[in-house]
Amino acid sequence: MSESIFGESNRVTEPSEEGTWLSVSDLMAGLMIVFLFISIVLMRDAVIERDTIKELAETYQIERDKIKEIAAAYKDNKVKIYNALVIEFKDDLVTWDAEINRHNLSFNFKSPDVLFDIGKSSLKKEFKLILNDFFPRYLKVIHYFKRSVEEIRIEGHTSSKWGKGVSEDKAYFNNMKLSQGRTRAVLSYIYNIDRIIKEKRWIKNNIAAVGYSSSKLIRLNGMEDSQRSRRVIFRLITNSEAQILKIIGE
Question: Domain 66-249 - what CATH class?
């Protein structure tokens, strides 16, 4: 009796070889399915990532080509503006002691003795006569490029000097006030020239007066050139950057 019980007990507790191999096979099959699923997911993600990178690269190339095209167009436009100014004023530059900078489209009046008395912001008679001739003709040239103009900036620059016994900081702020007063005086004068009455609204919206004090000195052999540092500049600033951003946004 006990043997039969023990024998039955042995049959129940000892698994068969066939059952063992079936379990292992099922496990391996399950693992294979899992690995296959993971592989499919990874392959799908790789394809999506590849397509995304390709799309981004194509978009970048398109935008870069746009910017290059616009930059080339505005560079050409800048050259046209410079050439137009030179053609208009080439016979006056020596007489006025002025120059036109091709890189930043600035018209520089370089002779301080003609512009203002030392330490004063009121325009000298000689400078008023120059502005009477210069500014209407300047606006006439700019008229053909108005769509490209962001701003015309009248800049006032001084030397670093301000009498004896004045500290460097005090001289800087005294010259700041002086340079700002001078550019406001220039803007006020040109604004009231009879020949440009029809352009007053445009002048209000597009011409600014800025004083830089002695922050942008002219140097010769590393030393300050006090004479040339005292100057007035009409600088034309194009809207190329704004146009680039606008087109990218579109």
Answer: alpha beta
